Amino acid sequence: MYKWDRLKFIVQNGVVAVIRKVNPSIIEESIEALIEGGIKVLEITVDSEVSFNVIRKLKTKYGEDVLVGAGTVLDKITAKTAIEAKADFIFSPIYDIETIQLTNRYGCISIPGVYTPTEISQAYSAGADILKVFPATSLGPNYFKDVSGPLPHVPLMPTGGVSLENMAEFLNNGAVAVGVGSALLNKEYLANKQFDQIQLIAKQYIDKFREVKK
């Protein structure tokens, strides 16, 4: 799948599941529940060496049916390691130009974290493909409408505090997709291995996205 096709895939599917510090003993079952619920874009935060193995394993298993990226990437060295593990995209909580440049060099999707209009403009000019606005709830859905006025060409993705209750408002105000973490992977459900409930929540998010985009 070419880079443009992967970008289109993210926008068409709309919900990026942020998988952070899930117990390795249940991470495969948790991810399978998300996928069965309709989630097709997964961000694996690179908190340990296990994370890169998870990315590689998921890409081997699902191929182009599911996009798998690396999250919480703070520098170009980590980005390179993730790309070598077959990551489809690189998510950062910050704007680091070297990480963007390296990611582009290898034909991978770059999604850096930004907060202000200046950061948004600079990161996009540096080659970012989508801008992760983080933390989104500190700014609110109206921020996306306001920023999209002078910067309509820049694709924005809110992450941090996105829920079923506010997701539609973010999308209706200009976001091209949303990043969702703990709201999808409920700690209680994980602890009790209630994967059917995780699948149900995933389906609710996908249904909500499709409803907004109809």
UniProtKB/TrEMBL annotation:
What InterPro entries does the database record attribute to this sequence? Aldlse_KDPG_KHG, Aldolase_TIM
Metabolic or biological pathway, per its Swiss-Prot or TrEMBL entry? Carbohydrate acid metabolism
> Which keywords does UniProt give here?
Carbohydrate metabolism, Lyase
Query: What are the protein's GO molecular function terms?
Result: lyase activity
Family to which the UniProt record says this protein belongs: Belongs to the KHG/KDPG aldolase family.
Oligomeric form and interacting partners = Homotrimer.
Q: What is this protein called?
A: 2-dehydro-3-deoxyphosphogluconate aldolase
Could you tell me which species this protein originates from?
Answer: Ureibacillus massiliensis 4400831 = CIP 108448 = CCUG 49529
